[in-house]
Amino acid sequence: MDFQSLRLEPIIALVAGILILVQPRLLNYIVAIYLIIVGVVGLYPQLFK
Q: In angstroms, rounded to a whole number, what is the distance separating the alpha carbons of residues 46 and 16?
């Protein structure tokens, strides 16, 4: 499996949604972590130019 063809955002969103259903008090932390991960993934190609 080629890593570049794998999209991380849907996988992260799925895991976050399941965690929120199981433990709703984690919502603030999950949203914060999700935004940080999406930001890093979005910047990743530009970090190594």
A: 26
CA neighbours closer than 13 Å in the CB half-sphere of residue 19: 15
Given CA atoms 19, 20, 22, 23 in this order, what sign does their dihedral have?
A: positive
Q: Where are the domains of the chain?
A: 3-44
- φ/ψ of 5, rounded to 5, equals -85, -15
Q: 37 by DSSP, 3-state: which? A: helix
Question: What pLDDT score was predicted for residue 5?
Answer: 54
Average pLDDT over the chain, rounded to an integer: 78
